[in-house]
């Protein structure tokens, strides 16, 4: 607890410092003045994209090594595709946000629809839920209190400092997230045993590639992971990078760090199932494993690492939701001055409150990821990728494809009660509907 308190004090210090030196203009606030160096780019990208740490623990405890094939491999593949095909183009576009790019290519209506979809996808409800669970385990607080306090602490410094504040804290959070699991995994091996012990202690399904859930349960995540190509934090970091080369190299290096971290987290998830087979709430797999394995001082370091991992994503996505809601949605609807930061800061408060409400309503991290990814990806994938190529389509065509994708996926989710309908996941018909509308209208346009 002492180390976790030290980490909390660091965040309070960051807030106090930023209130003395707030961001000066929109470019400074939203993309840190386009000055991100390679180390800063890697630290903020790696830590931001791995906030779902308790969800990873939940899945690994439930399905075993399948976790790596679900939450690892598909995201590496798409991240590499993004780095090789889109990173340089994104930096070259010289916009501040993704909806700005949609407006430049397709007009105002697709930009507004894209902003709406991005706002829903970036509200950090899943990560806020994880904060609440972790604080509940640490302190005994009721979950609603942990969710509320954790959200406030994660977003206070963003209010004044914008992306500069996010990147500044991410550098420390990057170190803490690796330190925590580099302590936990070796300790598990030493206390409980190695691979032979795990094989004997785990259910047979936990060592199968699909975790016993079936091929489609794994395959659907390879489609959901296509959301990587419309990942707003990637675009924001690329817009903020010092150069095109920094954007591309930063993403490729980040993939390497994610591979290492996934090895650590999947291994820890296997130990959690073997050591705690009767765990009541799998979301608590990692903190409960640490409590069973580590002495108090090292447990404090691990807890600080978990907090850092989650909060590095809460602040980034709350900020993205604020920029999207305040600037790209409200501001674009009212045709406000693009340099105004007031609407973005008000939107930060609104998106944080919405995240708290959604987290308390949903109760499951994986369910939130599944539903939001199934709705947002069909609406955005085709138009966003198209916006960064030398192809173009008419505004009405793009608008229709976004509505068809989200509408079809939403109807499918309702018909399936939140799960597959007629054995098919909602994201598949959603993507099919979007692309069937969009692709016939695509033609060669001005260079991207």
What is the beta-strand fraction? Answer: under 5%
Tell me the distance between the termini.
51 Å
Arithmetic mean pLDDT:
87
Structural class: mainly alpha
From the alpha carbons, calculate the radius of gyration and give it in angstroms.
21 Å
What would you say this structure looks like, in words?
- It is a single chain.
- This protein is mainly alpha-helical and 448 residues long.
- It contains 21 helices and two strands.
- It has helices at 2-20, 26-31, 38-48, 53-63, 66-71, 73-92, 98-106, 108-122, 125-139, 143-161, 163-192, 195-201, 215-224, 232-240, 244-275, 285-293, 296-334, 342-362, 365-387, 395-415, 427-438, and strands at residues 391-392, 443-444.
- Strands 1-2 form a two-stranded antiparallel sheet.
- It is globular, with a radius of gyration of 21 Å.
- The relative contact order is 0.18.
Give the gist of this structure.
The protein is mainly α. It has helices at about 1-20, 25-30, 40-50, 55-65, 65-70, 75-90, 100-105, 110-120, 125-140, 145-160, 165-190, 195-200, 215-225, 230-240, 245-275, 285-295, 295-335, 340-360, 365-385, 395-415, 425-440; strands at about 390, 445.
Topology:
Blueprint: H1 2-20, H2 26-31, H3 38-48, H4 53-63, H5 66-71, H6 73-92, H7 98-106, H8 108-122, H9 125-139, H10 143-161, H11 163-192, H12 195-201, H13 215-224, H14 232-240, H15 244-275, H16 285-293, H17 296-334, H18 342-362, H19 365-387, E1 391-392, H20 395-415, H21 427-438, E2 443-444
Helix pairs in contact: 1-10, 1-17, 3-11, 3-14, 3-15, 4-15, 6-14, 6-15, 7-8, 8-17, 8-19, 8-20, 9-10, 9-17, 9-18, 9-19, 10-11, 10-17, 10-18, 11-15, 11-17, 14-15, 15-16, 16-17, 17-18, 19-20, 19-21, 20-21
